Amino acid sequence: MYRIGELSKLLGVSEHTLRYYEKEGLVVPLRKGKNRIYTEEDREWLEFILHMKNTGMALVDIKKYTLMRKDENGNKHA
Fold this sequence. Notes:
By secondary structure, the protein is mainly alpha-helical. The protein has four helices and three strands, in the order E-H-H-E-E-H-H. It has a three-stranded antiparallel beta sheet with strand order 1-3-2. A hairpin with a 2-residue loop joins strand 2 and strand 3. It starts with a strand and ends in a 6-residue tail after the last helix.
C-alpha cells in the first residue's frame, strides 16, 4: 500500500498528476479519511498508463482502454 507522496516518488510523477488521473477516472485509490491509499495493482496500472503515454498514446485513448478494463473486471476500480 502506498500513500500519494510515496507513489509519486516511486513513479517519478507529481502528486498533482496522480490526482488528475484519479479525476479523469484512470485510477480509483482506496480512501482512509482524506488520504488516498494506492494498492500494488494501482501501482502496476499507473506504470502501464505512464508507459502508454510515453509511446505517444493520447489520454482520451487511455481513458477508453481504462473503461474496457473496468468492464472486463466487472466494473471493479480502475
